[in-house]
Design brief:
It comes from Anaeramoeba ignava (Anaerobic marine amoeba). This is Sm domain-containing protein. The chain is an alpha+beta fold. The chain has one helix at about 5-20; strands at about 25-30, 35-40, 50-60, 65-75, 80-85. The chain has a single domain (about 5-85), classed as Roll (SH3 type barrels), CATH 2.30.30. It is built from 1 helix and 5 strands.
C-alpha cells in the first residue's frame, strides 16, 4: 500500500500536471516520434490525451515529417519525455 508520504507526493504531482491542462505540449515517444498538441487530460495509469495533435517523424535526412492526426491517446509505456509550456 502507498504510505501517506507517497500519496501526498502523488497528489502534488497531479496538481502540478493540472496547471498544464489546455496548454501546448510536446511528447517524445520511445520510437523517436514526437506528438505536439494541446494537453487535455491524463488518467491514473499515466496515459495522456492530446487534442489538435500533429505527429513528427524523423526522416533519414534529419528533418521531421509532420502530419496532423487530431485527437490521440498516448499510452504511458510509449512516453520518453514530455514538455509543456505553462504560460503562452
Amino acid at each position: 500500500m502507498n504510505s501517506e508520504k507517497e500519496k501526498s507526493q502523488n497528489q502534488n504531482l497531479i496538481e502540478k500536471a493540472k496547471t498544464f491542462l489546455g496548454k501546448s505540449i510536446m511528447i517524445s515517444l520511445k520510437d523517436q516520434r514526437r506528438i505536439a498538441g494541446t494537453f487535455e487530460c491524463f488518467d491514473k495509469q499515466g496515459n495522456i490525451v492530446v487534442s489538435n495533435a500533429a505527429e513528427e517523424s524523423k526522416m533519414k535526412s534529419g528533418d521531421f515529417l509532420r502530419r496532423k492526426i487530431g485527437n490521440v491517446i498516448i499510452p504511458y509505456d510509449f512516453i520518453e519525455n514530455c514538455f509543456a509550456q505553462k504560460n503562452l
